[in-house]
Structure formats: C-alpha cells, structure tokens
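> forwarded from #structure-qc
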C-alpha cells in the first residue's frame, strides 16, 4: 500500500489499525486510485460454514455505514480477547466484510466513484414497471447523479468475485449492506429493487423478520420490506447477486440492505443541511456516537441468526404459509 493512503481516508486508517489483530484475516482485492479495497474475515475458515457477509461504503457520501461496521468490528475484537462464548460462536460462523468499498467516493465524500458511476446502479439488472428518471439510473452522463456506467466497475467486480468465492465454501450466506439517506425511519430492505414481484425466498424474509421482531420487541424503529415499496431502480447489485445465486443452485444467499433514515438527523438539526455530508451523516458528536452503537443489536442478531440458520429457515411444510403471509404483508394492495 502506498505510504500516504491512510491519511487520505480516516476510515481506512481506522481499519488498518484493526488489521493488526491476530483474529483477522485480510486481503487487498484492488488498488483504486492508490487506495486499497480490503476484504477482511473473522471466524471459522473450514468448509460448509455459514457466513455473515457485510458491506459498507458503496456510496462515498454515506460513510456512516462504514463507520458502524468498523465500530462494531472493534467491539467484537475487544470481546474476543476474553469472551469465551463469543469465541465459541466464531467456531461455527464466519464474517466476511468489505467495509470500505467505494474508496474513492469515501475519500472525496461523493456518492459515485472516481469515474462518476453509482455502484448501486451499475449491475446488468433492468427495472420493470414504474420508475423515476434519473433516480432509477441513467446512462446520459457521469456528471449527472445515478449514472449507471457501461461496464461493471472494479469495485462491483470485486464484490461479485468475493461473493462467488464465499458461496463455494459456505452452506448459507446472509448479507447486509449499510447505507443512509432515505426517509426518517430505518429500513431493512430485501430484493427486489428492479420490480414489485416477490422474491423466490420470500418465506425466508418473513421468517427472519418475525424472528427479529420476536427477539427484540423494543426495537420498533426498523421497517422491514422489499425495496420496491419505496422506489424501483436499474442496476441494483444485490438484485444481480441474488438472481445469480438463485440460478446456480448453490447455497442460499439472503441479502438485505440497511437504509438508515438520515432525514431525522436533518429535522433535529436543520443547520447541518449546510454541511457537505449533512443529508447522509449525523454531524453532531453525540448523535454520531448514538448512531454508531444503535445498530449493534441488529448486527449481533444477524451474526447469531447466521450461525443458527437451521433453526429458523423455513421447512417444506412451513414455507407455503410463510409465503402467503409475505404476499399479504407486502404485496397485496388495500
């Protein structure tokens, strides 16, 4: 790594300090404009191990997702030095994390990468039905927002390659991609973003939703729903990864996106609209600390749900009822 890269990006400096911990395995997937795109792993490396796949920083002006992952990772690494229960948990589960995907966007606090491409409009997926231009993705110019590009970016190629490799040695993959910037309520989105048809694994989404709500009844600030209920887009990377995984008949990939409702921060502190990151990031120090720890219960739940997925994944007998429940909950108009 070039010697001056850490000082160009505070999150990268924080990550590279954590890489000194012996529990972490890491690899540089790409150097992009001199900045490393890291993959890190913690946990059991053997075959047929369930994997929690975590991604942050796909949009460079939404650094809070990367910061949450790094804060939680630091918390886990500290506990691994003394917590025998957590040590035992990591004997049967693995975390694969790409916390700083859009390194050039994070460096310059821009949504797109250095080529002006929005990584979440860049996959081959095409939206169907009602969609808003240019929000749904456009191919006119990288100078306009939500530019799709003409080929897969290096960043997305890296995510796809890591996912393919991960699924070759896993028996189940639960993925979470952290974003911010939409609405005043935190949302957990699952496919699809391209259209309003239910995914093939709707029953699994219902089961995980009900498992979380039953386990954390006081965490009522998450709305769990398909992304298409909010808006539809071209090129959603998780739609592409999900459909690819579904077609190859390998282990189940169940992807979710955490979309943190950053408009609430703006409502509480209207002056932050004048800050470059004010629409997507908690500016006040006490609010930043609160957001950094707010989602640890969710991440802890996802880790344990991944490790014990066989206890909640629908069976052939329960799947039809859960699928009907999902249709009624999310796809039936009043």
């Amino acid at each position: 790594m070039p010697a001056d890269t850490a000082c160009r990006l505070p999150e990268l400096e924080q990550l590279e300090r954590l890489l000194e911990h012996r529990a972490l395995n890491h690899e540089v997937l790409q150097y992009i404009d001199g900045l490393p795109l890291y993959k890190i792993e913690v946990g059991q490396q053997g075959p047929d191990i369930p994997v929690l796949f975590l991604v942050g920083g796909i949009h460079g002006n939404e650094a809070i997702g990367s910061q949450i992952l790094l804060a939680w990772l630091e918390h886990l690494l500290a506990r691994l030095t003394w917590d025998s229960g957590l040590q035992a948990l990591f004997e049967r589960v693995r975390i694969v994390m790409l916390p700083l995907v859009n390194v050039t966007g994070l460096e310059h606090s821009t949504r797109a990468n250095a080529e002006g491409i929005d990584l979440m409009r860049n996959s081959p997926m095409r939206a169907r039905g009602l969609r808003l231009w240019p929000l749904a993705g456009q191919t006119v110019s990288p100078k306009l927002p939500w530019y799709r590009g003409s080929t897969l970016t290096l960043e997305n190629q890296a995510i796809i390659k890591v996912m393919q490799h991960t699924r070759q040695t896993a028996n189940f993959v639960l993925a979470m991609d952290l974003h911010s910037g939409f609405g005043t309520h935190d949302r957990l989105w699952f496919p699809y973003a391209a259209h309003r048809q239910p995914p093939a694994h709707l029953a699994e989404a219902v089961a995980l939703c009900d498992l979380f709500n039953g386990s954390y009844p006081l965490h009522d600030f998450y709305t769990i729903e398909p992304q298409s209920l909010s808006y539809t887009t071209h090129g959603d990377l998780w739609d592409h990864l999900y459909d690819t995984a579904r077609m190859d008949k390998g282990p189940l990939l169940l992807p979710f996106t955490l979309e943190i409702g950053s408009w609430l921060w703006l409502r509480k502190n209207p002056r932050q609209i004048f800050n470059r990151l004010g629409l997507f990031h908690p500016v006040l120090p006490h609010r930043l600390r609160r957001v950094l720890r707010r989602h640890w219960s969710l991440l802890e739940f996802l880790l344990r749900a991944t490790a014990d997925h066989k206890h909640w994944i629908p069976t052939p007998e329960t799947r039809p009822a859960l699928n009907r429940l999902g249709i009624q909950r999310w796809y039936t108009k009043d």
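QC bot note: The two ends are 56 Å apart (CA to CA). The CA atoms of residues 39 and 162 lie 8 Å apart.
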